[in-house]
């Protein structure tokens, strides 16, 4: 399996910020710029959402501006506030809140976007102008060649048989934060805002972790045989597992998981606002939502999306799994994130 990622160096980003995006002068074609995740996400989103949109709207061209993460997308919008060059931005919901608070996003209203009525309630958050476009969930990664039978519980991470064979990306990455909240419930916590049990569980696990900073990621560590267990995101885990020739598996444990929400926002002062609105409406439509769920196993936010049973079973959105999901308000998590990161530095990483 080959994993491609686009990394923007500081110098490259600086150059991109200094130069305006080049737009065609032909009046008959409008060009919008979409800032979203790069690498394998871009490959698949371009193929089943962006390209079909352009075929359906021949007068609109979409330029995909790949970003390494949500925070960098926010930084780009901030830098361009006086003269925006981006039209549409994708980022996680906590970054969407920050962008809204800074006046960087226009609201998406039901009058302009009737499709909003079809979205799941969790696609919206108070005080956030961006709306959910994909749901993903934390997933247990494993090597089918060495972890037998296939794991069904998060507790396998604490099995002494796998000591020194575990790869998890630590906080402040959202994988580490999410794993803390999952472990908190797993070991008896009843409120994720009191994450002490999760911190203690991961502190106990820490001496048995091979790497808290797997490069390029935990999926690769398991695929190339460096590790046998890990934690990652289900969509990528499911896709990579299908490309790995049996070297990677992605499980949705019986205790449940938690959702991470990516949102789509309309940049305030977007150069091509009306064309950008057309793209956002399409990206939220049942057709686009179903296509991306089938292609990359992100759970759809549109409740009318017709997704095959096979694809749905690879997500946490199947009816039998929804009831086990940990309900997390990521805006609440943002309030104690610094405190949680400090606990990781003091109590977890020091024991590795």
The CATH architecture category of the largest domain equals 3-Layer(aba) Sandwich
Could you give a short account of the major beta sheet? 9 strands, mixed
Task: Name the average pLDDT.
Answer: 92
Q: In CATH, what is the class of the largest domain? A: Alpha Beta
- CATH third-tier fold name of the largest domain: D-Maltodextrin-Binding Protein, domain 2
Please state the CA-atom Rg, rounded to the nearest Å.
20 Å
Low-confidence stretches: 1-27
Class by alpha and beta content:
alpha/beta
Number of helices: 13
Shape: globular
Q: Let me know the CATH homologous superfamily of the largest domain.
A: Periplasmic binding protein-like II
Order of helices and strands: HEHEHEHEEEHHHEHEEHHHHH
- Count of the separate structural domains: 2
Question: How many strands in all?
Answer: 9
Query: Into which percentage range does the β-strand content fall?
Result: 15-25%
Helix content: 25-40%
Report the span from N to C terminus. Answer: 29 Å
Pfam family, one: SBP_bac_8
Keywords: Signal
GO biological process, one term: thiamine transport
Protein name: Putative spermidine/putrescine transport system substrate-binding protein
């Amino acid at each position: 399996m080959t994993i491609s990622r686009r990394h923007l160096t500081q110098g490259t980003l600086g150059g991109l910020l200094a130069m305006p995006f080049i737009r065609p002068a032909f009046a008959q074609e409008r060009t919008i710029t979409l800032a979203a995740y790069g690498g394998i996400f871009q490959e698949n989103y371009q193929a089943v959402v962006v390209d079909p949109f352009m075929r359906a709207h021949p007068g609109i061209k979409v330029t995909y501006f790949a970003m390494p993460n949500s925070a960098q997308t926010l930084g780009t919008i901030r830098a361009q506030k006086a003269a925006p060059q981006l039209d549409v931005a994708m980022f996680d919901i906590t970054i969407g809140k920050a962008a809204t608070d800074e006046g960087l996003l226009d609201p998406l209203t039901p009058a302009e976007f009737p499709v909003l009525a079809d979205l799941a309630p969790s696609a919206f958050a108070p005080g956030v102008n961006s709306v959910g476009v994909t749901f993903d969930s934390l997933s247990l990664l494993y090597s089918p060649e060495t972890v037998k039978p296939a794991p069904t519980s998060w507790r396998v991470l604490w099995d002494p048989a796998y000591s020194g064979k575990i790869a998890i990306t630590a906080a402040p990455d959202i994988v580490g934060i999410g794993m803390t909240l999952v472990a908190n419930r797993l070991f008896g916590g009843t409120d994720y805002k009191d994450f002490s049990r999760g911190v203690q569980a991961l502190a106990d696990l820490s001496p048995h972790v091979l790497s808290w900073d797997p490069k390029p990621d935990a999926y690769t560590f398991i695929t190339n045989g460096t590790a046998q267990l890990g934690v990652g995101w289900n969509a990528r885990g499911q896709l990579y597992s299908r490309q790995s020739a049996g070297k990677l598996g992605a499980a949705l444990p019986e205790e449940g998981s938690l959702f991470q929400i990516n949102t789509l926002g309309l940049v305030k002062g977007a150069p091509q606002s009306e064309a950008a609105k057309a793209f956002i409406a399409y990206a939220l439509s049942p057709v686009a939502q179903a296509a991306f769920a089938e292609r990359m196993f992100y759970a759809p936010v549109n409740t009318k999306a017709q997704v095959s049973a096979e694809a749905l079973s690879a997500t946490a959105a199947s009816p039998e799994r929804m009831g086990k999901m940990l309900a997390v308000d990521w805006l609440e998590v943002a309030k104690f994130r610094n405190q949680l990161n400090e606990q990781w530095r003091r109590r977890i990483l020091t024991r590795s």
